[in-house]
């Protein structure tokens, strides 16, 4: 599941590649450097977004398991079902 930040990072990375290539073709060290910088920023943004998604997924998995277990102890089918849904959501985020 891609977040807006992850998608934006990917786009910046690709734009940086294009800019760097254009700089090479035109013999512009400055344009190459700016393209490289844009790629680094894009990759950093993408990786940070992925890490955030993994953390959110792990949190949802654990929360869901706990809610499911609590529902099993108390006999609440509603809590068990809700916990299972949250757990599955977490798995999908990872």
Describe the structure.
By secondary structure, the chain is an all-alpha fold. 91% of the residues lie in helices and 0% in strands. It has one domain (4-93).
Instruction: Let me know the average pLDDT.
Output: 94
How big a fraction of the residues is strand? under 5%
Measured between the Cα atoms of the first and last residue, the distance is 8 Å
Instruction: Report the helical percentage.
Output: over 70%
Radius of gyration: 21 Å
N-to-C SSE string, H for helix and E for strand: HHH
Number of DSSP helices?
A: 3
Give a nutshell description of this structure.
Residues 1-13 have a biased composition (Polar residues). This protein has 94 residues and is mainly α. It has helices at residues 4-26, 29-74, 77-93.
What's the topology here?
Elements: H1 4-26, H2 29-74, H3 77-93
Helix pairs in contact: 1-2, 2-3
What are the defining features of this structure?
mainly alpha, 3 helices
């Amino acid at each position: 599941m891609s977040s807006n930040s992850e998608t934006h990072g990917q786009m910046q990375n690709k734009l940086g590649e294009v800019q760097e290539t254009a700089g090479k073709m035109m013999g512009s060290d400055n344009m190459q450097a700016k393209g490289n910088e844009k790629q680094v920023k894009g990759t950093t943004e993408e990786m940070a977004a992925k890490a955030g998604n993994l953390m959110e997924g792990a949190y949802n998995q654990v929360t869901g398991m706990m809610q499911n277990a609590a529902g099993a102890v108390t006999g609440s089918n509603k809590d068990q079902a809700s916990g299972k849904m949250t757990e599955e959501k977490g798995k999908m985020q990872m």
